[in-house]
Sequence to fold (291 residues):
Amino acid sequence: MIESRQASPTLRAFLAAGLFLAALLSSFAAFAQQAAPSLPLLFDARERLARPDLSSLVRLRFLTSVDFPPFNFTDQNGKLSGFNVDLAREICSELEISDKCQIQAIPFADLKDALAASQGDAVIAGLAVTPELRRQFLFSRPYLMLPARFVRNLAAPLDGKTAAALSNHPVGVVKGTVHEAMLAAFFPALKAQAFDTKDALLAALKERKVDAAFADALQLSFWVSSPASDKCCALFDGPYLSEQFLGEGMTIMLRQKDSVLTSAIDHALAALSRNGRLQEIYLRYFPYGLY
Fold:
């Protein structure tokens, strides 16, 4: 996964196909009838990170892409939008350098080389952190984790509200994915049934060929709240986080020479986490919740 996102190509296709927008509209309706989903704090509330002096900074150029909704995409008016885009703007505001900030979208495949060539100062586009990239670049602290979740068919009778209730029930998972490996490691007693694709898995769940499925919470949260699910299913138990299987989470990538700027971004992320603005952005794009 050297140059992959924190989401699979199947997930990117699912979201880019338009299901994200339909799910988002449905999610707002569901959100209005329930308590606001919370965003787990990734920064200790007592932690105070130093704010470096950026007075000599000429400009801060964020690089992103437009093919990873709801994180970064072009909206119906052709405007660059998304969770990452709004977060970049909030970081600049927190650091009081909004007048020096720029956000540019380029093809995802070009992000690493563009940053290495100093065509930008920071990449905020869901690049997965890898040992190879760590040898070349610096990374901010994580600002969002993408967990795994179960989703259950509501017609399946379950005796309990935890994963233990899935014993003796067929649980679907996509073959050859990190979620298949994670399911086997975390829940070896469950009866896993592997499917070739995510579409096949979700179709089997909807038709109750399996009673539950285990997959990426981002995809599942939008699917259960979209017309595609026909209200058959709901998220169940979790969330489950694992750096071994799911990576370090969403981070910002910077050049090795920019340690001061990296520290400044960490300071801003900690402040946004404490003052609730990170939660506000999260609710804007994930009203149904991932956790």
